[in-house]
Amino acid sequence: MRIDPDRAALLLVDIQPDFMPQGNLAVAGGDRILDGVRRIMTSGVFPLQAATQDWHPPDHVSFASNHEGREPLEVMELYGHPQVLWPDHCVQGTPGADLHPDLPWERAAVIVRKGDDPASDSYSGFRNNWNPRGERPSTGLAGYFRERGVEDLYVCGLARDYCVKWTAEDGAREGFRTRVIWDLTRSVDPSGDDQVRSELEAAGVELIHLEDLDLEGGA
Ligand SMILES: [Zn+2]
Fold first, then answer.
1. Which residues are designated catalytic?
2. Domain chopping of the chain, boundaries
3. Three-state SS for 127?
4. 175 alpha carbon to ligand 1 midpoint, in Å?
5. 127-155 pLDDT, tens per residue?
6. What is the Cα–Cα distance from 181 to 177, expressed in whole angstroms?
7. pLDDT digits (tens, 9 = 90+) for 64-122
8. Are the CB atoms for 183 and 155 separated by under 8 Å?
9. Do residues 72 and 64 make contact, with C-beta atoms less than 8 angstroms apart?
10. Distance in Å, CA 56 to ligand 1 centroid
11. H helices of 149-192, where?
12. CA of 127 to the centre of ligand 1 (A)
């Protein structure tokens, strides 16, 4: 698959220490994507690279620790929607919230921080989850891509079943031809992968693998 450098963007979702196997919200095999991600970032085939960074205040509503009597991974209802309660993770200014130190972030033109509203979660790089008024406020990323002439989005990162999925679904909804590089993602709960795959395909997202990309075409 040949990448059109004038129309494509690489979107790197939440590749942060807290989502690595030793992190506060460990994703099994999260570190296994790093070599492939580095290969793509340095290949030269994506002149435009963007990243998202999960970035929560300590009193964030998604933390189980902020709900009396709740345990991590319990689900509660929040503003009429299910909300998974997470262990504290990606707290602003902590090392776990950094962009992963082993990747060449100097290549990222834009970094979108998300989840900074204490009252609502933010899985997608494009829009927060619902706020108390039932809205999903934009991060501005879709407008950024449009102004840069982007039509094709290539998404990878963590976690496959939450932030990658929501980002890719919103990308498709915003009108971008959106592809998820499946083997450069990992799930919080791999037992749900079949469902994730079918929901992404139903949203119009194409699932590809690293080997499908022509990385020799770059400078
Ligand atoms: Zn988070």
1. 14, 114, 163
2. 8-57+89-217
3. strand
4. 25
5. 999 999 999 999 999 999 999 999 999 99
6. 13
7. 999 999 999 999 999 999 999 999 999 999 999 999 999 999 999 999 999 999 999 99
8. no
9. yes
10. 7
11. 165-173
12. 13
